[in-house]
Model the fold of this input.
Amino acid sequence: MKEVRLENVTKSYDGINLAIPGISLVCPRGEMLALLGPSGCGKSTTLKMIAGIEAISDGAIFFDDMDVSDMDTASRNVAMVFEDYALYPHLSVFDNIAFPLSVRGMPRTDIGERVERVLKLLGLRDISSEKVQQLSGGAQQRVSIGRALVREPDLIMFDEPLSHLDSDQKVQLRTEIKRLQQTSKLTSVLVTHDQNEAISMADRIAVMDKGVLQQVDTPSAIYNCPANIFVASFIGEPPMNLLDAFCSNVSAEPRTHFGTHCDVATGEQVWPQLARRAEGAAIVVGIRPEHVTVNPLQATLVLSGQVHAHEPGGDSDVLTVDTPIGRIVVEAPAPILLVEGDTVQLGLEPEYFHYFCKETGGNLLLETL
Ligand code: ADP
Done:
């Protein structure tokens, strides 16, 4: 397995418009990196450039210290796992996994040994002689992972590998892929539009929008410290509440204001970092729905509002509440015994606030001043 590194790689399909204006990214050896973003943000283009399926327009791609930018796919030793499995339905599990080795003319005994190893690793030995068309989607995807592994590639790329599976199989297979990736220390790139997949499987997530990297970090850092408003609203379900605000510091008492009639003390620990960029400027305060409390006994900021909608869930319910400072979505333990039109008090704690620049969208606590 190798490290994969993209250095200022660009891609234009028509010579004019840049699908990828310039991306620099590292997937360290043995790690899984997820490319995550909405449709059209450039995930597949990036994956295809790494695999050598699409030529890059500029920049360079390295596998360890080797520049592979001009190498064809076959010479890069990259294995792909696709969303539609791409197996031969009339062949057995064994023969599908053996296929990449047979076409290379590897001796039969060597093929047998390698395939057996992979069958064992993936728990497929009992069904090795079954035709793949008889298997469930989850089992078929395990076969296609086996076919990728048997080549002993330098890199495995997973292209939306769970998209065609039902939710039970999805959860099972994503655990299975994670286990394999960790135990076999596979350098892997995962392309997905599903944040749950990226969060549960990847060591690090590269969030993309319009061909541009927005943040590359661990799932928890991306969730707890989003680099900008795009990442803040893309990661997390229901999405983060975003409220227009501004900061003041009259008599050395920093406060965060929502409109002219509602304000709260700004945490002393964040003010030194916020002060220069936020004082008097238009900002956006982000608050995750799970950090808002319903009818709290005690809270630093209490807002009165009317329930606009109540969506019951399993463990938690989602309330949408109209307050004087805007509509706020709350996620709280079920059951919440409130219906549309009810009056409710919401509790907000500044320690959970995220502060963004309204103009640039950047996280004011992350930006270097
Ligand atoms: P994603 O995988 O995130 O949905 P893509 O990489 O497929 O995004 O697309 C990124 C951008 O490149 C989009 O604007 C898309 O229209 C464009 N694009 C992708 N493939 C081609 C192609 N073969 N020819 C022209 N434009 C393309």
Residues 122 and 176 are 8 Å apart (CA to CA). Residues 239-357 form a domain with the OB fold (Dihydrolipoamide Acetyltransferase, E2P) fold (CATH 2.40.50.140).
